Amino acid sequence: MPIKIPDDLPAKEILENENIFIMGEDRAQHQDIRPLRIALLNLMPTKIVTETQYLRLMSNSPLQIEITLLYTWTHKPANTSEEHLSRFYSSFDEVKDQKFDGLIITGAPVENLEFEDVDYWDELKQIMKWSLTNVYSTIHVCWGAQAGLYYHYGIPKYPLDSKMFGIFNHKIINHNNNNNFLRGFDEVFNAPHSRHTEVRIEDIEKHPELEVLATSDDAGVYMVAGKHGRHLFVTGHPEYDALTLKTEYDRDVNKGLDIAVPNNYFPNDDPKGMPQVTWRGHANLLLLNWLNYYVYQQTPFDLGQLAESD
């Protein structure tokens, strides 16, 4: 089944050219089915790139999905036109009385700031509080994961000596057969990271309501879940495209910043080479497991029956 998105969203043409099944609004209206309502709070500066990445991952689900794109009205994006935001995005005020099957909170390039110094922190706190009663299951990604762990559990972030940047090897450390986030995963898998701060396993383990699912010897904690699957925290960027890290690297080089070549990314660590994607299978499976086991099979048919999450 396809993702339902506006007919003129730029991602639609991109994904159709990749032979990904996307359904426009007009066709979707003729299907007698309740689609899953997924909200994407897009905190990344390159919003069109990020929305396309997440839509690409969710397109692998057999479920019909209706996407609502959200932005923070307290921060004006510098890299996305006002026209695009007004046409395709909603503010929190516009959806705060609605309920959703799932919510994705993306990363943001603000991890060097204290949470309270981020200009939209108060608004984000409102959204995360709202999600407890108006969303069945929420995925928090990269800085969004650090923000969620801090808001919901008081878990701090710590600055790194150097940027965690590249593709890193991860291993499953929780073999609980009841945890369907990991269903079908290899024992070892790759995922991209691009961040200046970290959360630490010793802080997370103080909270018995949280489970650490996967870690990396180099990149640290990767995946943390609430006991009943209504919260998932992912410290990397599984949604990244083949060239996203290259774009970030080239941008920083052009700015004259002291940036290392991304780890395990370019062949022979040569930035002139073409990176090989080694994380796409994991990324697709992660989103598919979330949509299937923690959204579709758990959320009530009547979203008005949502109870507060744990």
UniProtKB/TrEMBL annotation:
Residue numbers marked as site, Important for substrate specificity: S194
Keywords: Acyltransferase, Amino-acid biosynthesis, Cytoplasm, Methionine biosynthesis, Transferase
Active site positions: C142, H237, E239
InterPro entries: Class_I_gatase-like, HST_MetA, MetA_family
Binding locations of substrate: K163, S194, R251
SUPFAM superfamilies registered for this protein in UniProt: Class I glutamine amidotransferase-like
Gene3D superfamilies from the UniProt entry: 3.40.50.880
Feature type site, description Important for acyl-CoA specificity: E111
Catalytic activity line of the entry: L-homoserine + acetyl-CoA = O-acetyl-L-homoserine + CoA
Pathway recorded for this protein: Amino-acid biosynthesis; L-methionine biosynthesis via de novo pathway; O-acetyl-L-homoserine from L-homoserine: step 1/1
Major enzyme class: transferase
UniProt-listed PANTHER family: HOMOSERINE O-SUCCINYLTRANSFERASE
HAMAP family assigned: MetA_acyltransf (MF_00295)
Functional summary from the UniProt entry: Transfers an acetyl group from acetyl-CoA to L-homoserine, forming acetyl-L-homoserine.
Family statement drawn from the similarity comment of this UniProt entry: Belongs to the MetA family.
Protein name per UniProt: Homoserine O-acetyltransferase
